[in-house]
Amino acid sequence: MILSRLAARPVLLAIGVLAALALPWMVYPPVAMDIACWALFAAAVDLLLGFTGLLSFGHAAFWGSASYVSGLIALHWGVPFPVAVLGGALFAAALAVPIGYLSVRLRGIYFAMVTLAFAQMIYFVVNQWRDLTGGENGLQGVPRELFGVDLSDPFIFYYAGLPLVLAGLFAVWRIVRSPFGRVLVSIRDNPARAQSLGYPVDRYKLLAFVLSAGLSGLAGGLYSISHGFASQQDVYWTTSGQVVMMVVLGGIGTLWGGALGAALVVELNDYLATAGFQEIGIVTGGIFVVIVLVFRRGIWGTARDLLEAHAARHRPAPSAVAPAADGAPGRLSSPA
Question: Between helices 60-77 and 81-103, what is the axis angle to 10°?
Answer without folding.
Answer: 150
